[in-house]
């Protein structure tokens, strides 16, 4: 396998896309990967503990676990198993490794190769002008970091990825705000930010209102812009139960993803030998970016059906008692022309009518969505229109109904609850002030995109990344890398090596930390941490393995010590106590964050609890106290002649910026990642053929072009006019300024590109 930064695609092989997901091959692939990383004993230990009541929360996605009494012994999926054993690997990155490999050399290696080197084992520093990382003691490393955090607090960025525990996230935001800045960019800025903006405006809360039980008992579930079979695999078991209970599923996607079609549950005998369960009752093969129009069409049909049979279609009680803006919304919704809606969705009218039939027959509807909606320019209006759709028939707050943004990282929702957001509301800042006796800054901080701009322009000079891989997760790779290299100091608290460690500021620090699976001993004894999943369930996670190295510190310890060194005793906060005993952090959380009252005692008593969702209590914390119907201007992405709308997505075998193998099994793509999936009819129009070597060139309003070199074309049933390619190789194509309206989320699913014959066959720069 190639170790260079580019995967030359020489071994590309393509087989028919799979028409079903999971089953026995999924188990085999997970075990193969796990046993390639670590011993049978450690694999058994991680797998027996993953998602169990006293065990390790899966460090994969944020899909919830079953209720404690209903959990299987194997409460994990293929990708969760791979993911935890990628962390539990027996491979180690030592000081010898850094002596042998210069930073320039490491910079030329692929994301795969860097990750495969194993767990980081001791703190390392790159001094100004140095070519290599060298070992440094913890005390000196953290003093160095603290010493750089001296100037204006707003010149520092504190990036958080959704792997962080509640305890560590709470302390990090406390540190940043006590220091004097709200510069807390996070992975959510690039992920579900559009969901938060849309839902807060319409419902007064950014969180989903749905539980697993709701999923099981819905009449109709929409799965929109989400590849559940790969990215939230156990959602398929939940949908299987929905179907067993008589519910239906409509999948809306630009690609016919295997997991949306048929599922063979590897935990059930019938999933091993049978044909599995057909997941989607209807697959809606929508045009890229056409979802706003689809929901506008459904909403318009609801209004017309109500005209035909007044009082029977809409939920007038809900609309009257709980919402505002219905009249204006209805007037607006009736105006959008059918031809425009059909053109934007790319669907025949009968197909939308078939969806509408299911809607009319269903009393309990849930809409689930992910990046296929959030990462478009009009992601926020699209999600607002989804909420309009749910509100019209009162599909909110009742059992079996609701809005379900399916979150990515295992604790991304918890990190936000803990205050990691550059725009936390004033009530939260006031609560911090009451508890800790200092006045947090009130002006908004920098998000990911604005943080990159600030580093690029020299306004931000110190970058601390806590988990994640900032330079690969962010758009416009060339610009972002230059921005990072301009920093005075870049520091990362990480478990594994990644490209963010090789793209350094003048000084750079690698601060290696315990992972979820590692046991965590502090002065008062063994500690555990807590997380919140996509359905607002909070529970503990306890590491079970001996730590990857004796020189690792926990995230809580690193953050507490850095804060102490930076701030001294101004304000006077008990950083040492926080490190010794995480329950003291939870005591603070219980007094600052609503819903966490009596945190420690409730965890001990019940093992976990669900945070209250106002929507389910009939409360809408908007300024008017009611849910808001919104007017969402009809838009469709403009794609000039000869161009395609490119989405950058995940293969089946990667975790965000890190790929595990170069295969995308369900889509039938093997041994290559530099591929672009294009509809065969578009290929014909473009005068191109399957397997042609092309460069992808993105265009932007200011006339600039960005190029990603040497991709292989694969004819694929993506909807006409759209193309798909893997992230992060294609992040170089996403202009920094190409962001979703309102949420500032990079438009990773809507990049206008053209395909050009490859300029060279030698792999180019990223
Ligand atoms: N194994 C694995 N699991 C993961 C991750 C991982 O990398 N690997 N990442 C985690 C994270 S952080 C996140 S946020 C989630 C992401 O979960 P997903 O959102 O499922 O991830 P993507 O791969 O970005 O897939 C986007 C889906 O939207 C579809 N899509 C794209 N554009 C449109 C559109 O305009 N309309 C519609 N209707 N569909 C569209 C794509 O075809 C694709 O199926 O997964 C989490 N889980
Ligand atoms: N083009 C494009 N760009 C995208 C997306 C897209 O769909 N298309 N998706 C966006 C989305 S949804 C997201 S969420 C972001 C993801 O962005 P990030 O969250 O920043 O990226 P990850 O790849 O998840 O980060 C992997 C690194 O996290 C570190 N890590 C893993 N576990 C731990 C841990 O327990 N503790 C610590 N301290 N470190 C740990 C390891 O060092 C590992 O190398 O990317 C975004 N970028
Ligand atoms: S569905 Fe998500 S949380 Fe559950 S086991 Fe799989 S990766 Fe882990
Ligand atoms: Mo995400």
TrEMBL record:
Residues 644-749 form the Molybdopterin dinucleotide-binding domain. Its cofactor is [4Fe-4S] cluster; Mo-bis(molybdopterin guanine dinucleotide). Keywords: 4Fe-4S, Iron, Iron-sulfur, Metal-binding, Molybdenum, Oxidoreductase. InterPro entries: Asp_de-COase-like_dom_sf (IPR009010), MopB_CT_YdeP (IPR037951), MoPterin_dinucl-bd_dom (IPR006657), Mopterin_OxRdtase (IPR006656), Mopterin_OxRdtse_a_bac (IPR010046), Prok_molybdopt-oxidoreductase (IPR050123), YdeP_MopB (IPR041953). Residues 119-409 form the Molybdopterin oxidoreductase domain. The keyword Oxidoreductase applies. SUPFAM superfamilies: ADC-like, Formate dehydrogenase/DMSO reductase, domains 1-3. It holds the Pfam family Molydop_binding. Belongs to the prokaryotic molybdopterin-containing oxidoreductase family. This is FdhF/YdeP family oxidoreductase. It comes from Streptomyces smyrnaeus.
């Amino acid at each position: 396998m190639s170790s260079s930064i580019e995967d030359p695609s020489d071994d590309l092989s393509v087989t028919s896309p799979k028409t079903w997901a999971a089953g026995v091959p999924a188990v085999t692939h997970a075990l193969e990967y796990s046993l390639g990383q670590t011993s049978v004993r450690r694999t058994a230990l991680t797998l027996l503990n993953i998602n169990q009541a006293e065990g390790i929360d899966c460090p994969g996605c944020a899909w919830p676990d079953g209720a404690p009494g209903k959990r299987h012994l194997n409460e994990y999926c293929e990708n969760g198993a791979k993911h935890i054993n990628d962390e539990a690997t027996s491979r180690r990155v030592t000081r010898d490794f850094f002596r042998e490999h210069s930073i320039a050399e490491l910079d030329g290696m692929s994301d795969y190769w860097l990750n495969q080197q194993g767990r980081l084992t001791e703190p390392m520093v790159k001094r100004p002008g140095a070519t290599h990382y060298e070992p440094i003691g913890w005390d000196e490393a953290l003093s160095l970091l603290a010493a750089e955090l001296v100037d204006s607090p707003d010149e520092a960025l504190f990036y958080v990825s959704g792997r962080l525990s509640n305890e560590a996230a709470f302390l990090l935001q406390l540190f940043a705000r006590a220091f004097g800045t709200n510069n807390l960019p996070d992975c959510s800025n690039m992920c579900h930010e559009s969901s938060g903006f849309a839902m807060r405006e319409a419902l007064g809360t950014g969180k989903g209102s749905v539980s697993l039980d709701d999923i099981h008992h819905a009449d109709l579930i929409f799965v929109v812009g989400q590849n559940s079979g790969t990215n939230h695999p156990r959602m398929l078991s939940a949908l299987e139960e929905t179907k067993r209970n008589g519910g239906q599923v409509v999948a809306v996607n630009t690609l016919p993803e295997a997991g949306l079609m048929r599922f063979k549950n590897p935990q059930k005998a019938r999933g091993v030998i049978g044909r599995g369960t057909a997941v989607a009752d209807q697959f809606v093969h929508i045009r890229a970016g056409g979802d706003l129009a689809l929901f506008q069409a459904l909403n318009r049909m609801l209004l017309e059906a109500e005209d035909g049979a007044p009082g029977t279609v809409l939920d007038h009680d809900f609309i009257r008692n709980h919402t505002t803006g219905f009249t204006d919304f209805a007037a607006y919704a009736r105006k959008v022309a059918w031809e425009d809606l059909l053109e934007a969705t790319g669907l025949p009218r009968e197909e939308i009518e078939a969806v509408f039939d299911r809607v009319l027959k269903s009393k309990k509807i849930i809409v689930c969505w992910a990046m296929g909606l959030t990462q478009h320019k009009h992601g926020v209006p699209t999600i607002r229109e989804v909420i309009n759709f749910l509100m019209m028939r009162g599909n909110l707050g009742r059992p079996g109904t609701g809005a379900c943004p399916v979150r990515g990282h295992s604790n991304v929702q918890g990190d936000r609850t803990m205050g990691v957001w550059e725009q936390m509301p004033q009530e939260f800042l006031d609560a911090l002030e009451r508890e800790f006796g200092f006045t947090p800054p009130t002006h908004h901080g920098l998000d990911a995109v604005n943080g990159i701009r600030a580093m690029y322009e020299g306004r931000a000079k110190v970058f601390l990344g806590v988990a994640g891989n900032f330079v690969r997760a962010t758009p416009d790779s060339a610009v972002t890398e230059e921005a990072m290299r301009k920093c005075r100091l870049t520091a990362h608290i990480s478990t594994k090596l990644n490209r963010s460690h090789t793209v350094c500021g003048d000084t750079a620090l690698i601060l290696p930390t315990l992972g979820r699976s590692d046991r965590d001993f502090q002065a008062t004894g063994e500690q555990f941490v807590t997380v919140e999943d996509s359905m607002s369930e909070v529970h503990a996670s306890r590491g079970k393995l001996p730590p990857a190295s004796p020189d690792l510190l926990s995230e809580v310890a690193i953050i507490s010590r850095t804060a102490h060194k930076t701030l001294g005793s101004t304000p006077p906060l008990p950083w040492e106590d926080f490190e010794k005993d995480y329950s003291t952090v939870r005591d603070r959380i219980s007094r600052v964050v609503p819903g966490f009252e009596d945190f420690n005692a409730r965890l001990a008593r019940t093992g976990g609890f669900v945070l209250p969702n106002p929507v389910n209590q009939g409360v809408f914390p908007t300024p008017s106290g009611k849910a808001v119907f919104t007017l969402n201007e009809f838009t469709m992405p403009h794609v000039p002649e000869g161009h395609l709308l490119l989405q950058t997505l995940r293969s089946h075998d990667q975790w965000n910026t890190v790929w595990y193998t170069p295969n995308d099994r369900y889509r039938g793509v093997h041994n290559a990642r530099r591929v672009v999936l294009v509809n065969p009819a578009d290929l014909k129009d473009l005068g191109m053929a399957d397997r042609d070597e092309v460069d992808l060139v993105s265009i932007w309003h200011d006339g600039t072009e960005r190029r990603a070199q040497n991709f292989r074309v694969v004819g694929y049933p993506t909807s006409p006019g759209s193309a798909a390619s893997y992230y992060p190789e294609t992040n170089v194509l996403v202009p920094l300024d190409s962001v979703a309206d309102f949420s500032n989320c990079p438009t990773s699913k809507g990049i206008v590109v053209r395909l050009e014959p490859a300029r060279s066959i030698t792999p180019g720069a990223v």
